[in-house]
């Protein structure tokens, strides 16, 4: 059996230096190799340089997908920092949907050798892949295997840092790689000037709009005008709820009528990360 490691960086493989935690090459690779059963051969692709997950973007998702495609017979473990794990989970889930691949994301809140969660998360990921965990993209974290298409990082300190928000079943994406796009996730808030919303939308190709509740927005006509004008310029805008759980429900409140009339897409129960990836790949 072969196992593909894609090591992007992240806390799990960092050591403390004069300016704080920084990646150290070889640490993760050695830890995984030491944990593999004798019948498993490790193939590896290590980002050069290793990066903090704050710097992950579409080119890196394409690099991961290229490596996964280049090893069609391998289950895959992707070692990744936690801060943008939710974006990468959505990206790989949607891009690989329907291909039958087995991918396990893994990271940690503390580095290897620090007496924290790193070793346990690696052990769980390796055990799941070696013992035939089903197809799909998942996260190995804090004793659980979570579907990666609707992750949110809800805690920036404790080991149980992630939740998996229920999502509608995935369908195959139109595209399977990420083109260059200017993107934004915008959150509506009381007092947001329509001019600020319009200015932000003028700079992007795709936008996720975090709206209130089941799909309402403020009633000021300049807000709906800003959305409509952006949509008419070709900006793809997808709405999601600011609530963690639950789907948007167009038509349930009059305060949402202007939103749906402006050409904004309904993201249903998607997380902001999942909605952004949907726009990118469709």
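Q: What amino acid sequence fits the structure above?
A:
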């Amino acid at each position: 059996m072969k196992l593909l490691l894609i090591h992007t960086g992240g806390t799990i493989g960092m050591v403390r230096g004069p300016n704080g935690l920084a990646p150290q090459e070889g640490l993760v690779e050695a830890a995984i190799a030491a944990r593999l059963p004798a019948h498993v051969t490790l193939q590896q692709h290590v980002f050069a340089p290793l990066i903090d997950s704050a710097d992950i973007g579409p080119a890196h998702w394409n690099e991961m997908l290229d490596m996964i495609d280049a090893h069609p017979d391998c289950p895959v473990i992707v070692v990744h920092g936690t801060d943008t794990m939710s974006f990468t989970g959505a990206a790989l889930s949607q891009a690989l949907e329907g291909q039958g691949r087995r991918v396990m994301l893994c990271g940690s809140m503390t580095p290897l050798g620090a007496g924290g969660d790193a070793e346990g998360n690696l052990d769980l990921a390796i055990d799941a892949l070696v013992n035939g965990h089903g197809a799909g993209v998942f996260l190995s974290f804090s004793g659980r295997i979570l579907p990666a298409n609707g992750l949110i990082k809800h805690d920036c300190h404790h080991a149980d840092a992630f939740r998996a928000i229920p999502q509608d079943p995935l369908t195959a994406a139109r595209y399977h790689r990420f083109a260059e796009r200017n993107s934004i996730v915008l959150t509506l808030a009381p007092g947001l000037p329509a001019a600020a919303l319009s200015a932000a939308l003028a700079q992007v190709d795709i936008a996720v709009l975090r709206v209130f509740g089941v799909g309402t927005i403020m009633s000021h006509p300049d807000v709906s005008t800003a959305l409509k004008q952006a949509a008419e310029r070709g900006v793809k805008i997808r709405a999601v709820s600011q609530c963690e759980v639950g789907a948007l429900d167009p038509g349930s409140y009059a305060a949402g009528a202007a939103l749906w009339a402006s050409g904004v897409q309904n993201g249903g129960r998607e997380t902001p990360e999942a909605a952004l990836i949907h726009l990118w790949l469709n």
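Q: And what stands out in the fold?
A: The mean pLDDT is 96.
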